[in-house]
Amino acid sequence: MNAGWDALVLHPDDDVAVALRDLDAGASVRIRRLEAVVALQANEAIALGHKLALRGLAAGETVRKYGAAIGAATRPIAPGDHVHVHNLVSLRGRARP
Fold first, then answer.
1. I want to staple 23 with a disulfide (CB 3.0 to 4.6 A). Which of 46, 52, 59, 94 is the partner?
2. Where does residue 63 fall: left (phi above 0), alpha (psi -120 to 50 degrees), or beta otherwise?
3. Inter-CA distances, 24 with 7, 14, 60, Å
4. Which residues contact 16 (CB under 8 A, 6 or more apart)?
5. Beta-bridge partners for 70
6. How distant, in Å, are the alpha carbons of 2, 50, 71, 90, 96 from that of 84?
7. Can you list the alpha helix ranges (DSSP code H) found in 1-77?
8. d(Cα 68, Cα 43) in Å, to the nearest integer?
9. What is the pTM of this model?
10. Distance, CA of 16 to CA of 47 (rounded, Å)
């Protein structure tokens, strides 16, 4: 199925898009964001269903998906980077003091 895009932004406030297919490193990725399709280069391979950064994120910065905070960047993340457990920590499952 080719819908005309490779990744989808789920909410206008999101910092990430979701890959709709496996993305190769260096590939130009077509991202559906609201009514527009924008392009971004994948800096590394990104698997189907995984997250692609839409903008630069600093270490410690909150990352949004579904319009809600899903975690914090554990190191700087560049636009086009894979966002997953290697550079994101969940804020939901942490024990509270």
1. 46
2. beta
3. 13, 22, 27
4. 9, 51, 52, 53, 54, 63, 64, 65, 83
5. none
6. 25, 7, 10, 10, 23
7. none
8. 25
9. 0.89
10. 14
- Amino acid at residue number 97: P
Spatial CA neighbour of 1 closest among 42, 70, 48, 68: 48
CA distance 57 to 35: 24
pLDDT digits (tens, 9 = 90+) for 34-71: 889 999 999 999 999 999 999 999 999 999 999 999 99
Query: pLDDT tens for residues 9-44?
Result: 999 999 999 999 999 999 999 999 988 999 999 999
Q: Which two tokens stand for residue 13?
A: 């406030």
The three-state secondary structure class of 17 is: strand
